[in-house]
Design goal:
The complex is a heterodimer of chains A (253) and B (101). Chain A has 253 residues and is mainly alpha-helical. Chain A has two domains: 184 residues, no CATH class; 67 residues. Chain A is 72% helix and 0% strand. Chain A is built from 13 helices and no strands. The longest helix of chain A has 33 residues. Chain B is mainly alpha-helical and 101 residues long. Helix content of chain B is 81%, strand content 4%. Chain B has five helices and two strands, in the order αααββαα. Chain B has a two-stranded antiparallel sheet with strand order 1-2. In chain B, helix 4 packs antiparallel against helix 5. Classes of the chains: A mainly alpha (253), B mainly alpha (101). The interface between A and B is large, with 100 and 73 residues.
């Protein structure tokens, strides 16, 4: 859920503007911890387990994936593996942030916990290091506080609701994933034809595996769609000699 | 066992975040590595959407959840905020379930 980047035209941004942007993102997204709290307890997690996930994992997509897989009866390790696959992108945010923020070694273990979609989006949109550090810290602090508070409220509220399926709460997970996926795909963009292909192949592979594999494993098979599509398009470029296209595909993220 | 899954996920997610902040950029900034890393979450998210919408145990099912997902698509196309997208899916799923009960 990377929000619209803030303006980057100004060489040095006033602190007030950075804080305002950061709080806007942190508070709004922090509120969606409520959806996680409700979904997690609805999937059969206890309130303590739900809160532990938001406190210790603190990356929404992985949390939703884990409780969804466990709630469907998946094996714990397969469920965890699916959740970890979604956490890979935070490594690449960290790479970018590390250069931008210039953190001393002792600060890294603390900053690392807040390296997620939203803090990266706010920090990377800042034109200078001071603003980036401020944006990262304010977004991280407000989102962490909000996400954990609303997780608890959602978990407490859900236990009062009774059957989560009657309230349609099992549809929250897919909607969260869809909102995260949409900005990554952009189907109209001809330079990014691999993204929709990977998504489509992953859907087909996952559904085809459902009757045959244990819960939680189909998503692991589906992830192979990423290297498969890359290998296929490299093969096609090699056979057609499309060197420019190959360079383009490799050079973009 | 649920706690074990939580512990593995928490440790693994934290380790991946710290790794990004700690390794020299050149190690992971190879074009192919970046490309795979950009596509893996797309595959995982797309698969999870399909599984949590259409899988029911070991069978496939077209039920109220599909209507909820369609509502989320419409909300996204209308550029609705994140929470509205989720709420649309939940409300429509509950409504369809109540009507078809």
């Amino acid at each position: 859920m990377i929000p619209t980047p803030v303006e980057t035209d100004h060489p040095a941004r006033p602190r007030g503007a950075v804080i305002r942007d950061a709080l806007g993102v942190g508070v709004t997204v922090g509120l969606s911890g409520f959806a996680f709290g409700v979904t997690s307890t609805g999937s059969g997690m206890t309130i303590a387990q739900t809160c532990a996930l938001s406190l210790l994992v603190f990356t929404g997509a992985s949390q939703f994936a884990l409780v969804g897989a466990l709630g469907a009866g998946g094996a714990p390790l397969a469920a965890a593996a699916g959740a970890l696959l979604l956490g890979v992108r935070n490594t690449f945010y960290g790479l970018r942030l590390s250069q931008l923020l210039g953190l001393p070694g002792a600060a890294r273990p603390f900053a690392a916990h807040w390296v997620i979609d939203e803090t990266s989006a706010v920090a990377l949109a800042q034109p200078d290091r001071r603003s980036a550090r401020l944006g990262f810290t304010v977004t991280g602090a407000s989102l962490y506080a909000g996400w954990n508070l609303t997780t608890l409220l959602g978990a407490l509220g859900a236990s009062a609701l009774g059957d989560p399926a009657a309230w349609g709460l099992d549809a929250a997970g897919p909607a969260v994933f869809l909102a995260l996926l949409a900005p990554m795909i952009r189907p109209g963009d001809v330079r990014r034809r691999q993204e929709p292909a990977v998504a489509a192949l992953a859907v087909l592979a996952a559904l085809a595996c459902v009757p045959f594999l244990p819960q939680g494993v189909p998503v692991l098979v589906a992830v192979l769609a990423a290297p498969a599509v890359l290998a296929l398009s490299r093969l096609r470029h090699l056979t057609t000699g499309g060197r420019a296209a190959r360079r383009r595909d490799e050079g973009e993220i | 066992m649920v706690w074990a899954a939580i512990a593995v996920t928490a440790f693994g997610c934290y380790a991946m975040k710290l790794l990004g902040l700690s390794v020299p950029a050149a190690v992971l900034e190879r074009p192919l590595v970046r490309r795979v890393a950009a596509l893996v979450p797309i595959a995982a998210l797309a698969a999870l959407i399909a599984l949590q919408t259409f899988a029911d145990g070991h069978t496939l099912a077209l039920d109220a959840r599909a209507a909820g997902l369609a509502a989320a698509v419409v909300a996204l196309l209308l550029r609705a905020p994140f929470l509205v997208v989720v709420a649309a899916a939940v409300v429509v799923t509950a409504a369809v379930r109540a009507l078809t009960g």
